[in-house]
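ERR on first pass: missing label on line 2. Operator R.T. fixed the label and resubmitted. Corrected input:
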Amino acid sequence: MGGRAEAVITEKVEKGNTVDVVNLKMYFPVLRGLLKRKVADVKALDDVSFSIKPGETLGLVGESGCGKTTVGRCILRLYKPTKGVLLFEGTDISKVSESDLRQFRRRMALVFQDPYSSLDPRMNSCDIVGEPLKIHGLAGSRGEYRDRVAELFTMTGLRPDMMDRFPHEYSGGQRQRLSIARALAGAPSMIVCDEPISALDVSMQAQILNLLQELQSKNDRLSYLFISHDLLAVQYISQRVAVMYLGRIVELSTSQELYSNTLHPYSRALLSAQPLPDPAAEERRSRIILTGDVPTPLNPPSGCAFHPRCPMAKKSCAESRPELRDVGGDHLVACHCV
Amino acid sequence: MGRLLTVNGLSTEFRTERGVVRAVNNVSYNIDEGEIVGLVGESGCGKSVSQLSLMQLIPNPPGRVVAGSAEFEGVDLLKYTRRSRELCAIRGNRISMIFQEPMTSLNPAMTIARQMSEVLTLHLNLDKKEARERSTDMLAQVGIPDPGKRADDYPHQLSGGMRQRVMVAMAMLCSPKLIIADEATTALDATIQAQLLELMYDLVGRYHTALVMVTHNLGIVARYADRVNVMYAGRIIETGTVKEIWADPLHPYTEGLLSCVPKLGEKLEPIKGMPPSLINRPATCPFLPRCRFRTAACFKEPAAELTYVGGQHATACNRRLEER
Amino acid sequence: MDGTKIVREQIPDDEFEVLEEEQLSGVNELKRFVRAFFRRKIVVVGFILVVVVLLTAALADVIAPYDPYEQDLYQVLAAPGPSHPLGTDALGRDLLSRIIHGSRIALAVGVCTVLVSASIGTVIGLIAGFSDSRLNSLIMRITDILISVPSLVLQLLIASALNSGVTGVVIAIGLTLFPAYIRLINGQVLSVKQNDYISASRSMGAKKSRIIVRHVVRNVVSPLIVMMTIMMGMSIMAEAGLSFLGLGILPPAAAWGSMCRDGYQYLMTRPLLSIAPGLAIMILVFAFNMVGDGLRDALDPKLRGALK
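pass 2 clean. output:
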């Protein structure tokens, strides 16, 4: 894809979005042997496109290996995308060098799944939360710095008098609050939440979901990319939801629409696989149980990657890959049978 | 339906440097034949420990079952010593367990068939050929394609979902009366989890096996279980049929737990605070520090015993019991 | 969860917090460290021995009853007695005084070799850990080769090429022990790099230098300290070995290794002449190993919180 083609794509994108991802591809080389020769590519992301508006939460669901974490890391440029356009507040950052990226870094942040490995065990919680302030020179004097960190603690429901404690003195839920406080420190316009509640207990999950929503209601330009395998949580917190399967988005629509009018057979199976905590609703539901395992992106099936497990698969599904198309009402789906 | 297991006053303690942790505190419940019972609670509430205690699989030291009885098919499991022949004859034969991480439960250096045959020769005295036949038959029943060939695979050659299917097959091998599934599907992907749960549901129905599902996922319990035990801080604080509990959760913790699950278009009302430490707990209700409905009386009274309020529904909340 | 719910007294939010306090009692880091370090009795013994040797070395001039180099040819090979507690050697020098002064050489060689090998190894290890996979595997394969060369042979070669004396010994031993540090540091860097807090730092826009200094080095320091402590013992051993073979620190210097060698000829008549310095070596090596073990327990962040 030449520079001109990309310019065309960039023009097509609506202005004023926080993030625009256009035909993003991320291939990881498979290296073998003493000389680390490349023997193959893992297509972790293949032509992924979406955008996130200011103040919006986009949910990203899918099973392990579907590439949802890779999307998050590409947006934050922790990975350099193989191909495609990645607009952050209107600027293409997909090819920007690491040193030029720094000015954008303050405006985006990441919250991780693992509340243990995401906080440096040898730093106290004040320095963990204040790290972005120091990196971007927002700290000021020692007193100002501590005041600002205390403010972040209060915002995320932590007690500022615990600032000098170390991460191991906090519980899992509180560590996740620390992670969120750190993410907020640079006053970002975009936070990628990568499975932020998966490692937590049910009651802590609800607390964190509410905290994220509360923060967004206080700052109406704050966007989230909420990555999770938990469809219920994603639907709860997101305005729009994208369902991923093997490196591609198979369905993208509003939360409400995806729930009431699920089109892609994979989304339907995923929805039905999620047991609802409501016995009455469970009795009424029909269950779709998929056969087979999730294929590996190293050797994806031909045509539509889902066809070997799909209950609706036709002959053509194995031959050509369905493109993501609009079926009306901001509802995109990639399936031959819809 | 006959009574299969009666647990009475089970208490388990762990000795740590900070003091004695009472991980399971005076837990009593029963399980009927062929019944599916959910055991829900958050991490550290003692749900796994209570199940391991029954099988005397608690590492000792630091852990110790300090009180209680567990009558299974007329014998008290807790009466035997840990390595007694009687208990070994029950474990894996009459009662089997399925754990979350199949890779640590399977021996990586043995083929699937050998591991399965070992169980059969140990418990049922089958000869090699019979054991192999029975193993492949069981693998076929848990939906493993081409079981004759797969039986000669090593555990690492199978995917996570397939491994957990093998675990189910091994658990079902000796046609046990009770299977304890401890977060058996938690580590799996949603669609694979659904496959496995459906499979377990079908199998226990077909063989009339009782199933205890230890899980933190309320959805799984709502979908598959007949009855639920809710645990908090080492105690069962509410028990009842799934319908009873969902229709009218009595204990404030149960109520809070149910409203912690996100529903589209509804505001979440999470339980505040975090689970208590189990060291030197006061005698008051363990949920007191987080309870939205506590009154001055709660601070003075000892924690309530699990008391039946009608049907199979029981709760351990003093305030709720007063109302009834 | 409907209208049947009975409304009771509602509790304001901040009250919940107060009741949680009991669970989060902060622990003093130093107190925790000391307690974890001295948890095993054998570590206490090792620590006391190290302190004793350090004091001996520092106060050697004061506590040694004689000058270690003064020959008293009337008192050659004297048996242990009131005037010479451990007897004298073939030149009439007081054995106890020589052992006391020998602790200085042992510690000096130990400290210097550890500093030399640790600094070379750490720098190369950090470079390897932060380079791309190709350069990394190149450095590590060379390291493997260096480690597979028998260290005694290499030490003999280097020591015989250089002049004998403390410098020669330090270089000879330092050059054979540094590959072990490369391996340790490289492994540590690679595992620390896996942690999400490194990605977090990158995503915040931290420069590579900041990540290395603030996050990686900090988390590599503890295993490095443990390794250095244990390596102290190893280098003291190696020095004694070289001196014993006559390639290390040569007489008349009071090095324990060469004292063993000198006393060797009189093993039948005056066994203490070689056994006493041998024991001194053994005790010091053991003591450093035990202290290293204790440090490993105390510095492991995974054990933090477990030992409250």
